[in-house]
Design brief:
The complex is a heterodimer of chains A (143) and B (655).
Chain A: H1 2-11, E1 13-15, H2 17-20, E2 25-31, H3 35-42, E3 48-49, E4 52-58, E5 68-71, H4 74-80, E6 90-93, E7 105-110, E8 113-119, H5 120-125, E9 128-130, H6 132-137, E10 140-142
Parallel strand pairs in A: 2-4, 2-5, 5-6, 6-7, 8-10
Antiparallel strand pairs in A: 1-9, 3-4, 7-8
Chain B: H1 2-11, H2 17-65, H3 67-71, H4 75-82, E1 91-98, E2 103-108, E3 133-142, E4 145-155, H5 157-209, H6 223-304, H7 309-339, E5 348-351, H8 352-369, E6 373-377, E7 384-387, H9 389-405, E8 411-419, E9 422-429, H10 463-474, E10 477-483, E11 487-495, H11 517-520, E12 525-529, H12 533-545, E13 549-553, H13 556-560, E14 570-574, H14 582-592, E15 599-603, H15 607-613, E16 620-623, H16 628-654
Parallel strand pairs in B: 6-8, 12-13, 12-14, 14-15, 15-16
Antiparallel strand pairs in B: 1-2, 1-4, 3-4, 5-7, 8-9, 9-11, 10-11
Helix pairs in contact in B: 1-5, 2-5, 5-6, 6-7, 6-12, 7-10, 8-9, 9-10
The chains are: A alpha/beta (143), B alpha/beta (655).
Chain lengths: 143, 655
């Protein structure tokens, strides 16, 4: 389900040209510990976002040029902060407080429904433009 | 005039305005109908486009606005989005469906919406005319992939109301435009037809009333104007022509009147000249006949005396000369009378047999004397001719006389035959014949075939001329066929009378051939009344030479004074006498005695003159000059008739 959510976020997010450049693929770096979660995200490989096929990569210290970064915990997020590969990456996570801690999209569960918060300032900084329709659905928007 | 014409044109089915108006009305009606129809279709298409566009735009807008809500299946936001349809009052229900087809949110009347997207497939392609509702299902796509769908249903009455009101307005406008077009067309028609109609009435008026004055028909400077101007010019030309014609007619009438007057004057002059000629002819006839008549009687008397051979020869020459002279005079007078139209035929029923008898009596001896055969051919059933007996016989005499004259051997045949409704009388001879080139001129005066020396023994050359003139008077057809050296045939066509209507022939039919005068008249007492001394003497000598006793008187009164006058056997009386004329004298004698007296009138007048002067005659008339043979012959005829009547009366008495 989280993988579907991630894919939907990508649909409503516009990657600026200076961010994505002429890259033929949309590189998604996954920084998770749970293998099942990693496999679920790996199912997104090959799907197209803005005419680009998605490529799923495991994030590491040597990763470069991540267009999308998914992290499963605050610990890993803090460890990756400042990594050059994430300089222009859309960051997504499901641990609570992610949007307040310089993350861009935080997936949350509320009343048995999937909701999300958006850190609009961080997204703009990184050169992303979020769809108004998606912003309208956000539980909380941080500007 | 124009108002009257307009009103008359309006209802006149004969006017060209009627079919033109029908044509214009039909064209206007058709145009308006086509315009309305096309407008209706175009507007219908436009309304359909509006519906389709509006609903599609609304659906797309909702789909776009709700795509994230559909993707993230946020029903609350989806419902919020659907509330946008409040701006579209025609949308009565709408719904958003997820990719899986599950209804996420709805708007308006839920009962109108399908439960899932599978049942909400609808398009706007087939929006029927005045359809109450239309449904629409549109996909919601994000990044070219379908993430859900939007469904909506709209009421269309507002669209159709607009459409109908627009059509009504268009219809009213079209009607008004059509009416205006008709009014304009009628005015235009009037501008064309009115002058044409006025022109037609003017033409009719000009024809009926002969009024060719130019007509003041108001027209513009166009083709109709040219027509009216040309019509007026034509009228002016006709008027001028008519006046010229009238003038020429008047001149011609005047000329005719003048010429008629001149002709009448000329006719009067000619009549006067003709009368003068007739008077001269009468005088010449009388004055010439008297001495010739006397000469002949003297010559005959002289011939009967004892003469030596030389005297006899001279007397014979004298006889020939006087005969020729008499013949010439008679022929010339005949020609003159025929030319002057003086001779009027007396058409009656004539027996062919009487003619045959006369011909035989006259010409059989002549032919015999010349050694020719003379034959008469006639049908057993007697032909009754409808003609003037005397004139016809005169014609025949000329032909038969010529035939005998110009035939030296062979013979002469006279034939009567029936040919259809007429009788053909033909005179055949085996004489010298006539050359073909001369057949046309033989009827001219003084033409004689084979007589360049003008031998008087062969006649004067007037016979055929006289015959031709008589033919003209009788209306009979003359034909001649001839072969030189073989002979000729002259033919006369005479009308036939109905044989049943034929009257018994009179005295003239009596055949008297072979009459012996010396036996009949021996000792007869004859009274002769003649004022001309020489003529009287000549008659006396001629009659006494035949053994008759003659009492001679110079006037009627002297004779009437004679007591033995009524006992005479025969009276020879000149018509023109001093005092009582010959007819009056004979009538007086007939009054005095109960028996039928026998008499003959002698006259030097022409026949027609005598007829003009006297009532129908009961006395036989002989025209001077007369030879003694004719006189004796006439006396013999009357004596034979007397005997004939006596024997007939005796026969009837025996029955």
């Amino acid at each position: 389900m989280r993988a579907a959510m991630v894919f939907n976020f990508l649909k409503f997010t516009e990657f600026m040209p200076e961010v994505i450049g002429k890259a033929p693929f949309l590189r998604m770096c996954v920084d998770v510990r749970d293998l099942r979660q990693a496999k679920a995200l790996a199912t997104l490989a090959g799907r197209k976002v803005s005419s680009r096929e998605m490529v799923i990569l495991n994030f590491s210290a040597h990763s470069t040029d991540c267009h999308v970064y998914y992290v499963d915990s605050r610990q890993r997020w803090y460890a990756a902060l400042g990594h050059p590969a994430l300089r222009n990456a859309l960051t997504i996570s499901a641990y609570p407080g992610f949007a307040r801690e310089d993350g861009m999209i935080e997936i949350a569960m509320q009343d048995d429904r999937v909701r999300f918060d958006i850190n609009l300032a961080e997204g703009r900084r990184a050169g992303f433009r979020f769809s108004p329709q998606m912003l309208r659905l956000a539980r909380q928007i941080y500007e | 005039m124009n108002r009257r014409l307009r009103s008359s044109l309006l209802f006149d089915r004969r006017s060209i305005r009627y079919p033109l108006a029908r044509l214009i009305i039909s064209a206007v009606f058709l145009s308006i109908s086509l315009a309305l129809l096309s407008d209706a279709f175009l507007m219908l298409d436009s309304v359909r486009g509006d519906i389709r566009r509006t609903l599609t735009d609304a659906g797309n807008a909702a789909g776009t606005a709700a795509n994230a809500a559909v993707v993230f299946q946020d029903a609350k936001v989806a419902r919020d989005v659907l509330r946008m349809f409040e701006a579209y009052p025609e949308v009565e229900a709408a719904a958003l469906y997820t990719k899986e087809g599950v209804r996420l949110a709805s708007y308006g009347n839920d009962q109108l919406l399908p439960i899932d997207a599978q049942h909400g497939v609808a398009t706007l392609r087939d929006i029927g005319l005045l359809a109450k509702t239309a449904t629409l299902s549109l996909p919601i796509e994000v990044d070219n992939s379908r993430v859900g769908s939007v469904y909506l249903q709209a009421r269309l009455e507002n669209y159709w109301q607009t459409y109908l009101s627009s059509m009504t307005t268009t219809f009213v406008v079209a009607l008004v435009a059509g009416g205006l077009a008709l009014i304009l067309a009628m005015r235009f028609l009037n501008r064309i037809i009115l002058p044409v109609r006025m022109l037609a009435e003017a033409a009719n008026d000009a024809r009926l009333r002969q009024d060719f004055a130019p007509r003041g028909i108001p027209v513009a400077d166009n083709e109709i104007g040219d027509l009216v101007r040309n019509f007026n010019a034509l009228l002016a030309e006709v008027e001028a022509g008519r006046k010229l014609l009238q003038s020429q007619h008047d001149e011609l009438e005047q000329l005719v009147a003048e010429r008629t007057a001149e002709l009448l004057a000329a006719k009067d002059s000619a009549d006067a000249a003709n009368a003068a000629k007739s008077r001269f002819l009468a005088a010449a006839s009388h004055d010439l006949r008297q001495p010739i008549h006397a000469m002949r009687l003297f010559q005959e008397t002289l011939s009967d005396t004892a003469l030596d051979d030389e005297q006899r020869r001279i007397a014979d020459y004298l006889d020939l000369s006087t005969r020729n002279l008499a013949e010439i005079l008679n022929a010339l007078l005949d020609v003159s009378k025929l030319d002057g139209g003086i001779v009027k035929p007396r058409i009656e029923v004539v027996s062919s047999y009487s003619l045959v008898c006369k011909i035989e009596a006259e010409f059989a001896p002549l032919a015999l004397a010349k050694g020719l055969r003379f034959k008469l051919f006639f049908p057993q059933l007697e032909l009754m001719l409808f003609t003037d007996a005397a004139l016809l016989y005169s014609q025949l005499r000329n032909f038969i006389d010529n035939a005998i004259k110009y035939t030296d051997s062979g013979g002469v045949l006279v034939g009567f035959r029936r040919r259809r409704g007429s009788a053909l009388i033909q005179v055949w001879d085996s004489g010298i014949g006539i050359a073909p080139d001369q057949l046309e001129v033989i009827f001219d005066e003084y033409f004689q075939a084979d007589n360049p020396q003008r031998d008087r023994a062969k006649g004067l050359g007037l016979g055929l001329a006289i015959a031709k003139r008589i033919g003209g008077v009788l209306g009979t057809q003359l034909r001649c066929r001839s072969h030189p050296a073989k002979g000729s045939m002259f033919e006369i066509g005479v009308p036939l009378a109905d044989a049943l209507q034929a009257l018994p022939d009179g005295v003239s039919s009596a055949c008297v051939a072979g009459f012996d005068a010396s036996v009949a008249f021996a000792g007869c007492h004859v009274v002769v009344i003649e004022d001309d001394v020489m003529a009287a003497k000549a008659i006396e000598l001629a009659l006494t030479a035949h053994g008759l006793l003659v009492a001679l008187f110079s006037c009627a009164e002297e004779a009437l004074a004679d007591p033995g006058l009524e006992n005479a056997d025969f009276y020879i009386v000149d018509y023109r006498l001093p005092g009582m004329n010959g007819i009056q004298f004979l009538d007086e004698i007939q009054k005095r005695t109960p028996r039928h007296i026998k008499a003959t009138l002698l006259t030097g007048e022409a026949y027609h003159q005598l007829m003009q002067m006297t009532p129908p005659l009961r006395w036989k008339v002989l025209f001077k000059p007369i030879d003694s043979a004719s006189l004796i012959y006439e006396m013999g005829v009357q004596n034979v008739v007397h005997r004939h009547e006596s024997s007939l009366a005796a026969a009837v008495g025996r029955w």
